[in-house]
Amino acid sequence: MTRDLGCRRGNAMRNRFVVVIVMAIGAADPALAQRAADARERLAAGRAAYQANDLDGAVQAFEKAIEIDGSVGEYHVWLGRALQRQLEHASLLRQPFVAKRARAEFQRAIELDPRNVSARDGLIALYLEVPPGLGGSVDKAREQAESLAVINSLRGHFARASIADRERRPDGMEPEYRVAVSENPDSAVAHLQLVQFLLNHKRPNDAFAVVDA
């Protein structure tokens, strides 16, 4: 629900751009084009495994995509996501290792593209979800949220609301959702986030007012 529709369109445009680049590379160097196609195939396999909750298979596929071409931030983001989900089921001995790897993948994606919204989203979620002993940090999440807000103001508001939620400050969540709605009146996601917040806090009348508006 937290994905902005505009961001989805942006991802679709980037995917089409990748296809164009692959075709251009193919015209100049068939070997490079084949490597790029192989990496995308591994990405597709990893995403299918991820959706099927086969996290080990997903991690292996994403690792292979990165082995083929480590310069694509999207591959690192997906590996970070798979590792983040693995962390939920990892043993106490493996948790520090998995958490460190997930964080490194998100950070690598940001190094490759500082405007990578998905990578910053993933890193914020990781900082908020894991305990300090595994690298969790509200302060670091807040730093990333401010950087994210510069790139995508809507996602920045959502990130700040998540931080307020983590700090158990509902009074800090509502203003972020309301500003998100006012700044993005055509965003269904912004309205749904506000409605969900109001319903979660037993304010159905206020929630219906948002829907009516």
Please give the radius of gyration in angstroms.
19 Å
- Ranges where pLDDT stays below 50 over 5 or more residues in a row are 1-5
Major pleated sheet: none
Shape: globular
Order of helices and strands: HHHHHHHHHHH
CATH architecture assignment of the largest domain: Alpha Horseshoe
CATH level 1 name of the largest domain? Mainly Alpha
- Count of DSSP-assigned helices: 11
**Residue fraction in strands:** under 5%
Total E-strand runs: 0
Total domains: 2
Termini gap? 20 Å
Kindly describe this structure.
With 213 residues, the protein is mostly helical. It has 2 domains: 5-150, Serine Threonine Protein Phosphatase 5, Tetratricopeptide repeat, CATH 1.25.40; 169-213, no CATH class. 80% of the residues lie in helices and 0% in strands. It contains 11 helices and no strands. It is globular.
